[in-house]
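Complex record, two chains
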Amino acid sequence: MLLIKNGTLVTMNKSFDVLKGDLLIKDNKIIQISKNIPTPEGAKTIDASNQFVLPGLIQSHVHLCQTLYRGFADDLPLLDWLKNKIWPMEHNHTENSIKASADLSILEMNLLGTTSILDMASVRNTHALLESVEKSGIRYWGGKCFMDYKDYSGPLYEKTSETLKETEELIKYWHKKNDLINYALCPRFVVSCTEEILIESRELQKQYDLIIHTHASENKDEVDIVIKRTGLRNISYLDKINLLNKQSAIAHCIHLDEHEISLMKNSQANILHCPSSNLKLASGIAKIEQYINNGLRVSIGADGAPCNNNLDPFMEMRLCALLQKPIFGSEALCAQKALEIGTLGGAMALGMENQLGQLSEGFLADVITIDRSHPSVYTVQNPYSAIVYSCSGRDVTNTIINGKLVVKNKSHQVFDEESVKQSAKLELDKMIRRIEN
Amino acid sequence: MLLIKNGTLVTMNKSFDVLKGDLLIKDNKIIQISKNIPTPEGAKTIDASNQFVLPGLIQSHVHLCQTLYRGFADDLPLLDWLKNKIWPMEHNHTENSIKASADLSILEMNLLGTTSILDMASVRNTHALLESVEKSGIRYWGGKCFMDYKDYSGPLYEKTSETLKETEELIKYWHKKNDLINYALCPRFVVSCTEEILIESRELQKQYDLIIHTHASENKDEVDIVIKRTGLRNISYLDKINLLNKQSAIAHCIHLDEHEISLMKNSQANILHCPSSNLKLASGIAKIEQYINNGLRVSIGADGAPCNNNLDPFMEMRLCALLQKPIFGSEALCAQKALEIGTLGGAMALGMENQLGQLSEGFLADVITIDRSHPSVYTVQNPYSAIVYSCSGRDVTNTIINGKLVVKNKSHQVFDEESVKQSAKLELDKMIRRIEN
């Protein structure tokens, strides 16, 4: 058992209770939240006197396989960035390099307070990547990326039949292999996919009860390609082929018309908002305030490290709030709403809103603690303001996933940080040599 | 003497050299930069093997007097924020509370890599604030705020003659009292100032060779008030009364027309860009890429803590770059340019471009070191990308101002961090009680 004592518990429960008290974890569940819980015999304890305690943050759109390329693909627009940098780099992965990339990503995300992710892997080496994920102990949804539309897949092109065959094998091997690993279907985006594989994705979704994770309407040129090919805007096309439902997780959704907003609402499909990435790739600013006021489901992610260049959910929550204000006014998207997006919103995107995203008895024990003693934070009384506007991921001290203390006092308990960083550098150097040759 | 060894020196000099090597400080100057400098007898050394070494960051627009109100004035537009929150709070300062506010601000800024600031104090208690500044050892420009236009100054209104009288006393006592303290004239903004005091500011500027530090064109309603009162847009009006020159430091400048951009260019007046604050107060996004391409002088600042809510120059540099991209394309405002704005741009705003803002022999020894071992940073090869896009202010390890080690291995050497934070909280509590009574 694990007892977190004397914290400021920012529960994110239905009544948004903020309590000064204790939280008790048994096995993988939160079993008690109250003042002065007596320490059970043999329980480990964490003193959270100067800490916020909150549900682990959920990033609903990341690419573990891209993290090695951070800083190697700056200052490019989306389609050039993909074709000239990201796809050639993904193409040059080996099993070792993709493992190094995944390890570095998960290390960073756990240290910065992320407990659950929805990932899009690359076309190849998915098995190796998932082995890294399994070792790490992060709560994971994700899978192999589909790119079977030859003219828009570059070196990552793969035949539809091969993709489907490997996908079924991966699902059978990996989906719910343990408490933490969940397979997700990942057609990259309409531009890189045949209609056949998109429709097959829907069939696999039904057959295995899986999330479909894709990108849409990130960039105006991308939308134009989809219109040219299908006669429809991006979200309208996904609706036409029955790909919108509450297990659809769609990154970006910046360029939606009113009809598409209503399609997203009626289908309960999830928007995966990535504010830093949307700025850095010059994609635009998604109108999140409008989406939320329309009842759309919104969660948050850092996207790939090369388009951010961090995997810090605190940066994304802060930007998520700040970017709406010049568009909709200073009252738009307050700090509490941004934290909702980073917790409850993510839980909804994963279909886990009854088990994740809040500190409540009976919920899964994904919990983080944040030091509130930095001079940037110390005097702030409103916890939402402190967490969203003033804290950094660097202030996270403990990260608990499924009841297990993965980061203890800023030190990762599963990974040896030094060796993960060194092997990432080594694999990066080898990859650069492979690309140059 | 102080020798920084084996760092990655990001010099920001004229040829933008990045060197692996050593940097030697004697008294308050950088006296040598090269590989393998032998340790002079009695010199202190800093091992910067895994660190970036760069010129201290310069924030050209801050309000030390506002830091206690962080988190107490969220989600409001500029004019409401000022009238309903900031002015009543500034009005309720005592000498003790303004000192506590200044101490907390300087502690935070030094820890996060800021070595020079251009500050705007409040209307009252300036002497007390400057006493705190003097003790701290930060490199400072700033002074008493002018608010003599009765209908737009709230409780901070002061008669023109009184303002001018106190200002001359403050200049005589404080300006160049030591190497680090420089007085600056601070008419708050046209809205709160009579034409008389603006013109008198120009006279005092000439007489004492001072920077004039003000706000302009932050908010559309503010611009409308200026047009209504003067018949001119904000910058055009400042030009008409001869307030634009290279010692003019003008915060925000978001809403400028083409004529005003040319006025800023021809006068060499300095734009003090505050991207987080401009988002949070819903003011807008200044077109920095256009300004730079037109040859305008741009520097950066966090503005007041209640409209940010951090005083972290790394956040501002990252946002400065990212926000331009959706407007001007992904190539706009690259990382190197953002770091220029945070160093050389600030030095220009202070008239110190021949002494500050770069690591060069003979320059003043304002230097910071940044740990590059965080998993978010470790594998990034391009130093500008690493510093601007991936580092956090939390990664700063050492801060040297005027040759003196102010922050050593993340620990402040002048302030006792705990007592600064506790006295800030105490003074904040007292202030809240004063406001409520």
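Note: Residues 347 and 356 of chain A are 6 Å apart (CA to CA).
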